[in-house]
Amino acid sequence: MKLIFEKSKHGIKNDMLPPLDVPEVELPTMLQRKQALNLPEVAQPDITRHYSALAKRTHGANDGFYPLGSCTMKYNPKLNDEMASLPNFTKIHPLQPVETVQGALEVFALAEKYLCEITGMDKMTFQPAAGAHGELTGLMIIKAYHTAKKDFKRNKIIVPDSAHGTNPASASMVGYKTVNVPSDENGCVDPEELRKVVGDDTAGIMLTNPNTLGKYEENISEVTKIVHDAGGLNYYDGANLNAVMGVVRPGDMGFDVIHLNLHKTFSTPHGGGGPGSGPIGVKNILEPFLPNDHPVQETSGKFNLMKPEQSIGRVKGFYGHFLVDVRALTYILYLGAEGIPHAAKTAVLNANYLMEGLKEFYKVGYPGICMHEFVLSLKDIKKETGVTALDVAKMILDYDMYPPTMYFPTIVPEALMIEPTETESKETLDEVIRIYGEIHETIYSDPEKVKSAPHRMVVKRLDEVKAARQPKLAYQFD
User: Which CATH number does the domain housing residue 204 bear?
Assistant: First the structure.
Protein backbone atom coordinates (compact mmCIF):
# COMPACT_ATOMS: atom_id res chain seq x y z
CA MET A 1 0.00 0.00 0.00
CA LYS A 2 1.39 3.38 -1.02
CA LEU A 3 1.87 6.19 1.48
CA ILE A 4 -0.23 9.32 1.04
CA PHE A 5 2.96 11.17 0.01
CA GLU A 6 3.61 8.59 -2.69
CA LYS A 7 0.16 9.29 -4.11
CA SER A 8 0.80 13.02 -4.20
CA LYS A 9 0.91 14.78 -7.55
CA HIS A 10 1.98 18.40 -7.88
CA GLY A 11 -0.83 20.74 -8.81
CA ILE A 12 -3.74 18.69 -7.45
CA LYS A 13 -5.81 21.09 -5.34
CA ASN A 14 -8.22 20.18 -2.60
CA ASP A 15 -8.83 23.40 -0.68
CA MET A 16 -12.44 24.14 0.24
CA LEU A 17 -11.85 26.55 3.08
CA PRO A 18 -14.57 29.04 4.08
CA PRO A 19 -13.98 32.76 3.46
CA LEU A 20 -11.72 34.47 6.02
CA ASP A 21 -13.95 36.08 8.66
CA VAL A 22 -11.23 37.70 10.79
CA PRO A 23 -8.66 40.40 9.98
CA GLU A 24 -5.67 39.03 8.10
CA VAL A 25 -2.39 39.37 9.98
CA GLU A 26 1.05 38.67 8.55
CA LEU A 27 3.55 37.01 10.85
CA PRO A 28 6.84 38.78 11.54
CA THR A 29 9.63 37.63 9.22
CA MET A 30 11.45 35.85 12.04
CA LEU A 31 8.39 33.62 12.63
CA GLN A 32 7.75 32.78 8.98
CA ARG A 33 8.79 29.45 7.46
CA LYS A 34 11.91 29.48 5.32
CA GLN A 35 10.37 26.96 2.92
CA ALA A 36 6.85 25.87 2.07
CA LEU A 37 5.16 23.22 4.21
CA ASN A 38 5.55 19.90 2.43
CA LEU A 39 2.00 18.54 2.32
CA PRO A 40 0.68 15.85 -0.05
CA GLU A 41 -1.37 17.10 -3.00
CA VAL A 42 -4.20 14.61 -3.45
CA ALA A 43 -7.80 14.84 -4.66
CA GLN A 44 -10.55 14.34 -2.08
CA PRO A 45 -11.76 10.96 -3.42
CA ASP A 46 -8.21 9.61 -3.24
CA ILE A 47 -7.84 10.93 0.31
CA THR A 48 -11.03 9.25 1.52
CA ARG A 49 -10.11 5.97 -0.19
CA HIS A 50 -6.60 6.07 1.28
CA TYR A 51 -7.74 6.51 4.87
CA SER A 52 -10.63 4.11 4.47
CA ALA A 53 -8.14 1.48 3.33
CA LEU A 54 -5.96 2.23 6.35
CA ALA A 55 -8.96 1.89 8.65
CA LYS A 56 -9.67 -1.57 7.26
CA ARG A 57 -6.16 -2.63 8.28
CA THR A 58 -6.55 -1.62 11.90
CA HIS A 59 -8.11 -3.60 14.74
CA GLY A 60 -9.84 -2.05 17.73
CA ALA A 61 -12.45 -2.94 20.31
CA ASN A 62 -15.13 -2.15 17.71
CA ASP A 63 -13.70 -4.77 15.33
CA GLY A 64 -13.36 -7.78 17.57
CA PHE A 65 -11.90 -9.36 20.70
CA TYR A 66 -9.12 -7.17 22.12
CA PRO A 67 -7.70 -8.77 25.30
CA LEU A 68 -4.64 -6.55 25.74
CA GLY A 69 -3.52 -7.53 29.24
CA SER A 70 -2.88 -4.68 31.70
CA CYS A 71 -4.30 -2.13 29.30
CA THR A 72 -8.08 -2.63 29.71
CA MET A 73 -9.10 -2.11 26.09
CA LYS A 74 -12.79 -1.94 26.81
CA TYR A 75 -15.64 -0.80 24.60
CA ASN A 76 -16.23 2.97 24.49
CA PRO A 77 -20.00 3.73 24.70
CA LYS A 78 -21.17 6.14 22.01
CA LEU A 79 -23.03 8.15 24.62
CA ASN A 80 -19.65 9.34 25.86
CA ASP A 81 -18.80 10.73 22.44
CA GLU A 82 -22.18 12.42 22.19
CA MET A 83 -21.60 14.28 25.46
CA ALA A 84 -18.06 15.24 24.48
CA SER A 85 -19.43 16.64 21.19
CA LEU A 86 -21.75 19.17 22.81
CA PRO A 87 -20.97 22.61 21.28
CA ASN A 88 -20.60 24.30 24.67
CA PHE A 89 -17.76 21.89 25.40
CA THR A 90 -16.09 21.81 21.98
CA LYS A 91 -16.18 25.55 21.25
CA ILE A 92 -14.70 26.92 24.47
CA HIS A 93 -11.14 28.23 24.67
CA PRO A 94 -8.68 27.59 27.52
CA LEU A 95 -7.89 31.31 27.78
CA GLN A 96 -11.50 32.30 28.42
CA PRO A 97 -12.20 33.96 31.80
CA VAL A 98 -13.26 31.37 34.37
CA GLU A 99 -16.64 33.01 34.82
CA THR A 100 -17.49 32.12 31.21
CA VAL A 101 -16.61 28.42 31.54
CA GLN A 102 -18.39 27.51 34.75
CA GLY A 103 -19.93 24.41 33.15
CA ALA A 104 -16.51 23.06 32.17
CA LEU A 105 -15.15 23.70 35.65
CA GLU A 106 -18.15 21.90 37.12
CA VAL A 107 -17.22 18.88 34.97
CA PHE A 108 -13.81 18.86 36.66
CA ALA A 109 -15.40 19.34 40.08
CA LEU A 110 -17.88 16.48 39.59
CA ALA A 111 -15.27 14.16 38.09
CA GLU A 112 -12.97 14.92 41.02
CA LYS A 113 -15.76 14.26 43.53
CA TYR A 114 -16.67 10.86 42.09
CA LEU A 115 -13.13 9.71 41.34
CA CYS A 116 -12.02 10.64 44.85
CA GLU A 117 -14.95 8.64 46.21
CA ILE A 118 -13.99 5.64 44.05
CA THR A 119 -10.28 5.80 44.95
CA GLY A 120 -10.41 7.03 48.55
CA MET A 121 -8.36 10.15 47.75
CA ASP A 122 -9.03 13.74 48.88
CA LYS A 123 -8.02 15.90 45.90
CA MET A 124 -7.36 15.35 42.22
CA THR A 125 -5.74 17.10 39.26
CA PHE A 126 -6.63 16.38 35.63
CA GLN A 127 -3.55 17.91 34.03
CA PRO A 128 -1.54 14.74 33.22
CA ALA A 129 -2.07 13.65 29.64
CA ALA A 130 -1.85 9.88 30.20
CA GLY A 131 -0.86 7.19 32.66
CA ALA A 132 2.93 7.48 32.50
CA HIS A 133 2.59 11.28 32.67
CA GLY A 134 0.48 10.76 35.79
CA GLU A 135 3.23 8.58 37.25
CA LEU A 136 5.77 11.32 36.64
CA THR A 137 3.48 13.92 38.24
CA GLY A 138 2.82 11.73 41.27
CA LEU A 139 6.53 11.12 41.83
CA MET A 140 7.26 14.84 41.46
CA ILE A 141 4.73 15.46 44.22
CA ILE A 142 6.32 12.77 46.42
CA LYS A 143 9.70 14.43 45.88
CA ALA A 144 8.28 17.87 46.66
CA TYR A 145 6.81 16.49 49.88
CA HIS A 146 10.15 15.12 51.10
CA THR A 147 11.97 18.27 49.96
CA ALA A 148 9.54 20.46 51.93
CA LYS A 149 10.43 18.41 55.01
CA LYS A 150 14.14 18.87 54.15
CA ASP A 151 14.43 15.10 54.01
CA PHE A 152 16.94 15.07 51.16
CA LYS A 153 18.39 11.63 51.84
CA ARG A 154 15.31 9.87 50.46
CA ASN A 155 16.41 9.00 46.95
CA LYS A 156 15.04 5.50 46.32
CA ILE A 157 11.73 4.18 44.98
CA ILE A 158 10.86 0.53 45.59
CA VAL A 159 9.37 -1.29 42.60
CA PRO A 160 8.14 -4.94 42.54
CA ASP A 161 9.72 -7.27 40.00
CA SER A 162 6.35 -7.61 38.26
CA ALA A 163 5.81 -3.85 37.88
CA HIS A 164 4.93 -1.99 34.70
CA GLY A 165 8.04 -0.85 32.86
CA THR A 166 6.97 2.76 33.13
CA ASN A 167 7.37 2.67 36.93
CA PRO A 168 11.20 2.55 37.06
CA ALA A 169 11.36 4.85 34.02
CA SER A 170 9.22 7.49 35.74
CA ALA A 171 11.24 7.20 38.96
CA SER A 172 14.46 7.68 37.00
CA MET A 173 13.11 10.80 35.30
CA VAL A 174 12.47 12.39 38.71
CA GLY A 175 16.01 11.54 39.81
CA TYR A 176 15.23 8.54 41.98
CA LYS A 177 17.03 5.22 42.03
CA THR A 178 14.85 2.13 41.81
CA VAL A 179 15.11 -0.88 44.07
CA ASN A 180 13.45 -4.11 42.97
CA VAL A 181 11.65 -6.28 45.50
CA PRO A 182 10.96 -9.91 44.52
CA SER A 183 7.56 -11.58 44.46
CA ASP A 184 6.69 -14.59 46.56
CA GLU A 185 5.52 -17.96 45.24
CA ASN A 186 2.00 -16.53 44.81
CA GLY A 187 3.17 -13.66 42.62
CA CYS A 188 2.70 -10.98 45.30
CA VAL A 189 5.11 -8.66 47.12
CA ASP A 190 6.94 -10.54 49.86
CA PRO A 191 6.70 -8.41 53.06
CA GLU A 192 9.89 -9.91 54.47
CA GLU A 193 11.83 -9.06 51.32
CA LEU A 194 10.34 -5.56 51.44
CA ARG A 195 11.56 -5.05 55.00
CA LYS A 196 15.10 -5.81 53.81
CA VAL A 197 15.16 -2.89 51.36
CA VAL A 198 13.24 -0.09 53.14
CA GLY A 199 15.11 2.47 55.20
CA ASP A 200 15.68 6.16 55.80
CA ASP A 201 16.56 6.56 52.11
CA THR A 202 13.17 5.22 50.94
CA ALA A 203 11.07 7.90 49.22
CA GLY A 204 8.23 5.49 48.49
CA ILE A 205 6.96 2.41 46.73
CA MET A 206 5.14 2.12 43.39
CA LEU A 207 2.62 -0.68 43.43
CA THR A 208 -0.15 -1.95 41.18
CA ASN A 209 -2.99 -3.79 42.93
CA PRO A 210 -4.18 -6.12 41.51
CA ASN A 211 -0.71 -6.62 40.10
CA THR A 212 0.34 -7.44 36.56
CA LEU A 213 -0.06 -11.16 37.22
CA GLY A 214 -3.75 -10.57 37.91
CA LYS A 215 -3.27 -11.24 41.63
CA TYR A 216 -4.67 -9.17 44.48
CA GLU A 217 -1.93 -8.28 46.97
CA GLU A 218 -3.24 -10.11 50.04
CA ASN A 219 -0.68 -8.39 52.30
CA ILE A 220 -1.38 -4.93 50.93
CA SER A 221 -2.09 -3.29 54.32
CA GLU A 222 1.12 -4.73 55.73
CA VAL A 223 3.09 -3.59 52.66
CA THR A 224 1.88 0.02 52.85
CA LYS A 225 2.44 0.12 56.62
CA ILE A 226 6.04 -1.06 56.20
CA VAL A 227 6.71 1.83 53.82
CA HIS A 228 4.91 4.37 56.02
CA ASP A 229 6.80 3.23 59.09
CA ALA A 230 10.04 3.84 57.19
CA GLY A 231 8.92 7.40 56.38
CA GLY A 232 8.09 6.74 52.73
CA LEU A 233 4.93 7.30 50.72
CA ASN A 234 2.79 4.77 48.85
CA TYR A 235 2.07 5.29 45.16
CA TYR A 236 -0.75 3.34 43.49
CA ASP A 237 -0.43 2.61 39.79
CA GLY A 238 -4.06 2.69 38.67
CA ALA A 239 -3.59 0.67 35.48
CA ASN A 240 -5.51 -2.27 36.95
CA LEU A 241 -8.19 -0.39 38.87
CA ASN A 242 -10.83 -1.89 36.57
CA ALA A 243 -10.81 -5.06 38.69
CA VAL A 244 -11.61 -3.34 41.99
CA MET A 245 -13.32 0.00 41.25
CA GLY A 246 -16.27 0.50 43.56
CA VAL A 247 -15.32 -2.62 45.54
CA VAL A 248 -12.19 -1.57 47.45
CA ARG A 249 -10.41 1.78 47.51
CA PRO A 250 -6.65 2.35 47.20
CA GLY A 251 -6.90 5.15 49.76
CA ASP A 252 -8.19 2.63 52.30
CA MET A 253 -5.28 0.31 51.51
CA GLY A 254 -2.82 2.95 52.71
CA PHE A 255 -1.91 4.69 49.45
CA ASP A 256 -1.09 8.41 49.43
CA VAL A 257 -1.15 9.14 45.70
CA ILE A 258 -2.71 7.39 42.72
CA HIS A 259 -2.81 7.90 38.99
CA LEU A 260 -5.81 6.78 36.97
CA ASN A 261 -6.02 5.81 33.33
CA LEU A 262 -9.32 7.32 32.24
CA HIS A 263 -8.47 5.99 28.79
CA LYS A 264 -8.59 2.48 30.22
CA THR A 265 -10.72 2.08 33.32
CA PHE A 266 -13.35 4.68 32.53
CA SER A 267 -14.06 3.76 28.92
CA THR A 268 -12.53 6.71 27.09
CA PRO A 269 -10.61 6.21 23.81
CA HIS A 270 -7.26 4.42 24.09
CA GLY A 271 -4.51 3.79 21.61
CA GLY A 272 -3.46 5.34 18.34
CA GLY A 273 -1.32 7.95 20.03
CA GLY A 274 -3.97 9.51 22.27
CA PRO A 275 -5.35 11.60 23.65
CA GLY A 276 -5.46 9.86 27.01
CA SER A 277 -5.97 11.22 30.48
CA GLY A 278 -3.99 10.27 33.57
CA PRO A 279 -5.31 12.34 36.50
CA ILE A 280 -3.72 11.84 39.88
CA GLY A 281 -5.43 11.80 43.24
CA VAL A 282 -3.70 12.60 46.53
CA LYS A 283 -4.35 12.52 50.22
CA ASN A 284 -4.62 15.86 52.05
CA ILE A 285 -0.94 15.82 53.09
CA LEU A 286 0.04 16.12 49.41
CA GLU A 287 -2.56 18.70 48.32
CA PRO A 288 -0.18 21.69 48.72
CA PHE A 289 2.06 20.26 46.00
CA LEU A 290 -0.55 19.68 43.25
CA PRO A 291 0.02 21.34 39.86
CA ASN A 292 -1.08 24.93 39.28
CA ASP A 293 -4.70 25.57 38.20
CA HIS A 294 -5.97 22.41 39.83
CA PRO A 295 -7.97 21.32 41.70
CA VAL A 296 -11.23 23.22 41.22
CA GLN A 297 -12.76 24.91 44.25
CA GLU A 298 -16.40 25.93 44.61
CA THR A 299 -17.22 29.06 46.63
CA SER A 300 -20.76 30.44 46.88
CA GLY A 301 -21.84 28.52 43.80
CA LYS A 302 -18.89 29.70 41.68
CA PHE A 303 -16.02 27.53 40.48
CA ASN A 304 -12.40 28.67 40.41
CA LEU A 305 -9.05 27.08 39.61
CA MET A 306 -6.65 26.95 42.55
CA LYS A 307 -2.91 27.51 42.81
CA PRO A 308 -1.61 25.30 45.65
CA GLU A 309 0.91 27.07 47.90
CA GLN A 310 3.85 24.73 47.22
CA SER A 311 2.78 23.63 43.75
CA ILE A 312 5.17 21.66 41.55
CA GLY A 313 3.98 23.98 38.74
CA ARG A 314 2.33 23.02 35.49
CA VAL A 315 2.87 19.57 34.00
CA LYS A 316 0.88 20.30 30.83
CA GLY A 317 -0.40 23.30 28.94
CA PHE A 318 -3.71 24.46 30.38
CA TYR A 319 -5.91 21.87 32.10
CA GLY A 320 -5.42 18.43 30.56
CA HIS A 321 -7.48 16.61 27.92
CA PHE A 322 -10.84 18.04 28.87
CA LEU A 323 -13.07 16.14 26.44
CA VAL A 324 -11.59 12.84 27.60
CA ASP A 325 -12.60 13.83 31.13
CA VAL A 326 -16.13 14.60 29.89
CA ARG A 327 -16.34 11.07 28.49
CA ALA A 328 -15.16 9.54 31.77
CA LEU A 329 -17.66 11.56 33.81
CA THR A 330 -20.45 10.44 31.46
CA TYR A 331 -19.45 6.81 32.02
CA ILE A 332 -19.44 7.25 35.81
CA LEU A 333 -22.81 9.01 35.89
CA TYR A 334 -24.36 6.42 33.58
CA LEU A 335 -23.21 3.42 35.61
CA GLY A 336 -23.70 5.01 39.02
CA ALA A 337 -22.92 3.57 42.44
CA GLU A 338 -24.28 0.14 41.53
CA GLY A 339 -22.92 -0.10 37.99
CA ILE A 340 -19.28 0.73 38.79
CA PRO A 341 -18.69 -2.26 41.13
CA HIS A 342 -20.82 -4.49 38.89
CA ALA A 343 -18.48 -3.72 35.97
CA ALA A 344 -15.46 -4.61 38.12
CA LYS A 345 -16.98 -7.89 39.31
CA THR A 346 -17.97 -8.84 35.76
CA ALA A 347 -14.41 -8.17 34.58
CA VAL A 348 -13.13 -10.56 37.25
CA LEU A 349 -15.78 -13.14 36.37
CA ASN A 350 -14.91 -12.99 32.66
CA ALA A 351 -11.19 -13.36 33.35
CA ASN A 352 -11.68 -16.41 35.56
CA TYR A 353 -14.11 -18.00 33.09
CA LEU A 354 -11.64 -17.56 30.25
CA MET A 355 -8.70 -18.76 32.34
CA GLU A 356 -10.55 -21.93 33.33
CA GLY A 357 -11.36 -22.63 29.69
CA LEU A 358 -7.76 -22.13 28.53
CA LYS A 359 -6.16 -24.18 31.31
CA GLU A 360 -7.01 -27.29 29.30
CA PHE A 361 -4.52 -26.20 26.63
CA TYR A 362 -2.01 -23.84 28.24
CA LYS A 363 -0.19 -23.57 31.55
CA VAL A 364 -1.20 -20.66 33.83
CA GLY A 365 1.86 -18.81 35.13
CA TYR A 366 0.48 -18.35 38.65
CA PRO A 367 -2.50 -20.68 39.21
CA GLY A 368 -5.47 -19.87 41.40
CA ILE A 369 -8.27 -17.35 41.24
CA CYS A 370 -7.26 -14.27 39.24
CA MET A 371 -8.66 -10.78 39.15
CA HIS A 372 -9.16 -8.94 35.83
CA GLU A 373 -6.37 -10.70 33.95
CA PHE A 374 -4.14 -13.76 34.00
CA VAL A 375 -0.84 -14.82 32.48
CA LEU A 376 -0.21 -17.99 30.48
CA SER A 377 3.28 -19.48 30.17
CA LEU A 378 4.25 -21.23 26.92
CA LYS A 379 7.63 -22.27 28.30
CA ASP A 380 6.87 -26.00 28.06
CA ILE A 381 5.30 -25.65 24.62
CA LYS A 382 8.41 -23.88 23.34
CA LYS A 383 10.63 -26.62 24.77
CA GLU A 384 8.55 -29.39 23.20
CA THR A 385 7.75 -27.84 19.79
CA GLY A 386 9.89 -24.75 19.29
CA VAL A 387 6.74 -22.63 19.03
CA THR A 388 7.04 -19.38 21.00
CA ALA A 389 4.57 -17.00 22.55
CA LEU A 390 5.32 -14.64 19.66
CA ASP A 391 4.39 -17.34 17.14
CA VAL A 392 1.06 -17.98 18.86
CA ALA A 393 0.34 -14.26 19.02
CA LYS A 394 0.97 -13.99 15.28
CA MET A 395 -1.37 -16.89 14.53
CA ILE A 396 -4.15 -15.33 16.63
CA LEU A 397 -4.19 -12.52 14.06
CA ASP A 398 -5.43 -15.01 11.47
CA TYR A 399 -8.64 -15.40 13.47
CA ASP A 400 -9.66 -11.72 13.31
CA MET A 401 -8.87 -11.04 16.94
CA TYR A 402 -6.08 -9.15 18.64
CA PRO A 403 -3.35 -11.07 20.48
CA PRO A 404 -2.72 -10.52 24.18
CA THR A 405 0.32 -8.76 25.62
CA MET A 406 3.48 -10.84 25.05
CA TYR A 407 6.51 -11.49 27.25
CA PHE A 408 5.21 -9.46 30.18
CA PRO A 409 5.57 -9.59 33.07
CA THR A 410 9.12 -10.78 32.57
CA ILE A 411 9.03 -13.07 35.61
CA VAL A 412 6.82 -15.44 33.58
CA PRO A 413 8.73 -17.16 30.73
CA GLU A 414 7.05 -17.07 27.30
CA ALA A 415 4.20 -15.03 28.77
CA LEU A 416 0.84 -14.20 27.23
CA MET A 417 -1.15 -11.81 29.44
CA ILE A 418 -4.90 -11.89 28.76
CA GLU A 419 -7.58 -9.45 29.94
CA PRO A 420 -11.07 -9.94 28.50
CA THR A 421 -12.79 -6.98 30.31
CA GLU A 422 -16.41 -6.86 31.44
CA THR A 423 -17.82 -5.88 28.05
CA GLU A 424 -17.23 -9.29 26.44
CA SER A 425 -20.11 -11.77 26.27
CA LYS A 426 -20.00 -15.43 27.28
CA GLU A 427 -20.48 -16.36 23.61
CA THR A 428 -17.35 -14.38 22.68
CA LEU A 429 -15.32 -15.99 25.44
CA ASP A 430 -16.45 -19.47 24.37
CA GLU A 431 -15.34 -18.70 20.82
CA VAL A 432 -11.97 -17.49 22.11
CA ILE A 433 -11.50 -20.74 24.04
CA ARG A 434 -12.35 -22.73 20.90
CA ILE A 435 -9.87 -20.76 18.76
CA TYR A 436 -7.02 -20.97 21.28
CA GLY A 437 -7.71 -24.70 21.49
CA GLU A 438 -7.53 -25.00 17.71
CA ILE A 439 -4.20 -23.15 17.71
CA HIS A 440 -2.93 -25.49 20.42
CA GLU A 441 -3.81 -28.48 18.25
CA THR A 442 -1.96 -26.91 15.31
CA ILE A 443 1.11 -26.29 17.48
CA TYR A 444 1.57 -30.04 17.91
CA SER A 445 0.26 -31.22 14.52
CA ASP A 446 1.97 -28.60 12.31
CA PRO A 447 4.33 -26.37 14.33
CA GLU A 448 5.88 -24.86 11.20
CA LYS A 449 2.52 -23.41 10.25
CA VAL A 450 2.36 -21.56 13.57
CA LYS A 451 5.97 -20.39 13.27
CA SER A 452 5.24 -18.81 9.88
CA ALA A 453 1.96 -17.12 10.89
CA PRO A 454 0.12 -14.95 10.12
CA HIS A 455 -1.12 -16.32 6.81
CA ARG A 456 -4.36 -14.43 6.19
CA MET A 457 -3.21 -10.88 6.88
CA VAL A 458 -2.32 -8.37 4.17
CA VAL A 459 1.12 -8.03 5.75
CA LYS A 460 2.77 -11.29 6.71
CA ARG A 461 5.56 -11.94 9.29
CA LEU A 462 7.71 -8.84 9.69
CA ASP A 463 11.41 -8.57 10.37
CA GLU A 464 10.92 -7.21 13.88
CA VAL A 465 14.62 -6.93 14.67
CA LYS A 466 15.19 -4.71 11.64
CA ALA A 467 12.07 -2.70 12.45
CA ALA A 468 13.41 -2.05 15.96
CA ARG A 469 17.00 -1.30 14.98
CA GLN A 470 16.47 0.46 11.65
CA PRO A 471 13.08 2.15 11.94
CA LYS A 472 11.84 4.51 9.25
CA LEU A 473 10.05 7.12 11.34
CA ALA A 474 9.46 9.75 8.66
CA TYR A 475 8.91 9.92 4.92
CA GLN A 476 12.10 10.86 3.08
CA PHE A 477 11.38 13.58 0.53
CA ASP A 478 13.53 13.97 -2.59
Answer: 3.40.640.10
